[in-house]
């Protein structure tokens, strides 16, 4: 549980929308009722069956990735005991079949876990956004839909900024700032349930004997308890744990980056650093730490002042053409 966590701050929209400064925030916040006028939200307030029927109006034979877990996992999609596999199975299925399965599980005393995550709204349910959308000031955001029953997504971070809108049901988000990485006991970087590294701590029942530093993480945690129509802004790189609390839940989220599309994900740099730097002798690692500090993390006006602007090459401000050249150089070096 996150009993000692403080609530996420609440803010108000401006004339029904989020101004640019709010969409560039570096701390989370909730906007209550931002999507309260969505037809999907109104249908969900009526009943799970009404929300199901509304979604089916836009179904056009879409196939989605679904996660299915037995009742014993208590909705938590996670690793198996030895972190050699997972406690659920992934399947490809038609979206209407998943909705059928959710209806079946709603009638069971001990339902299995059913979850469709991060599915493009426009692909799975074309036309839905016409009346169920958020104005993001012209940002080219990826709109995704998440559908399931009482499920739990382990603590993870995302590179893009994220606006998560609860359309049906209730959810609880527990958030941690990026500097709490050391206290979250993160699992493998390259072997995880859904593509992002996750914390091994069960937020609902933390094992402080096994994960003692998690107590420190909780001192910095924030909790968002959300109902239909509420929206939560999750800044880039903030860790978040997500609990769907109702028998039928739908969330729509929007992802966008504050950097150009042609910039690669920093995760690639991390994985390359594992390959090239982590196992160097300590003195060499410290030398590379200083190089990264100088060129990447703390550059100032003096860093390149001794070089003419047309002789800075890879150190010049990056644009799409420069990124293409640099990527080509890297690929040639990696594929030696």
UniProtKB/TrEMBL annotation:
<protein>
    <submittedName>
        <fullName>Cupin-like domain-containing protein</fullName>
    </submittedName>
</protein>
<dbReference type="Pfam" id="PF13621">
    <property type="entry name" value="Cupin_8"/>
</dbReference>
<dbReference type="InterPro" id="IPR003347">
    <property type="entry name" value="JmjC_dom"/>
</dbReference>
<dbReference type="InterPro" id="IPR041667">
    <property type="entry name" value="Cupin_8"/>
</dbReference>
<dbReference type="InterPro" id="IPR014710">
    <property type="entry name" value="RmlC-like_jellyroll"/>
</dbReference>
<feature type="domain" description="JmjC">
    <location>
        <begin position="114"/>
        <end position="271"/>
    </location>
</feature>
